[in-house]
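hey so i finally got around to running both of the ones u sent me last week. sorry it took forever, my laptop kept dying halfway thru and i had to restart like 3 times lol. anyway pasting them below in the order u listed, first the sequence line then the structure token line for each. didnt double check formatting much so if smth looks off just lmk and ill redo it

first one:
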Amino acid sequence: MTLEPLALEHADELAEAVAEGDLWKRWYTNIPAPEQMHAEIERRLALHAAGEVVPWTVRRASDGRAVGMTTYLHIVAEHRRLEIGSTWLAASAQGTGINTEAKLHLLARAFDTLGCIAVEFRTHWHNRQSRRAIAALGAKQDGVLRSHQIGRDGTLRDTVVFSILASEWPTVRLALSEKLARTRGHASAAS
């Protein structure tokens, strides 16, 4: 897995990736439809140019294919905090260790390079798959922001907030590294 700075030339590959499993149709997510991918990339790049986010394309190592997106957002430099979010992966990339590896890279950069004291993750209350994945990273649930946002269909979103603190990072890093090694070991044994 590699993380590349998001670019417009990734639009076609990412449109194909998001089409796997019709990811954008899940009511509790805000994932762009294939035909909206170019506009979504332009939106994220404009926010990046304004210094508000840092977006990446997630590329699978085994075939070099772009399989998703992830972003640093809610960056508050003076408080040394940021959020990792707006993440989605193609159906074929889910459960393969790609998310674990991407988060390990993003967390290492946040804590070791940027000197963050806390990294947040947020998801919709009803996105149980995302909540499980965030908890599996080693993040702890901080709370629920009730009626936090209005969804594209008009429903109110309760947002679950998780975080990892700098003091927890050494243990989280070790656990994620071991989890990734086990995932890779299972993949090698299956080959």
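and the second one:
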Amino acid sequence: MRSKRWDGKSGCAVEVTLSVIGGVWKPVILFHLVTGKRRFMELTRRVPNATQSMLTSQLRELEADGVVIRHVYPEVPPKVEYELSEFGRTLVPVLLAMREWGETYRGHGSTDSDG
């Protein structure tokens, strides 16, 4: 059940990827799901700069794109967990590469814009 957003304008596969996992919060959310299921409030603690409504919106989009699975347990209070779908797990190497690149960039120390 993929959303219509994947039909990019340029036809470039990178655009398709970014339409699914792009933005500030989606890769961070996905990275926190790499190690397994997380409850919503756990995600809010791990991504403290994202509002709860933004987190909810991003999780819904990831679920609509078939990357995240939402589990609702019939308990009081309600228990909701999120995890990567089987297809979403194919993003793990991408997410790990993004983390590695970010660590390298952070350690690079130069913001020289001369080229």
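quick thing i noticed on the 2nd:
The helical segments are 13-21, 25-33, 40-46, 52-64, 92-108.
anyway thats it, ttyl
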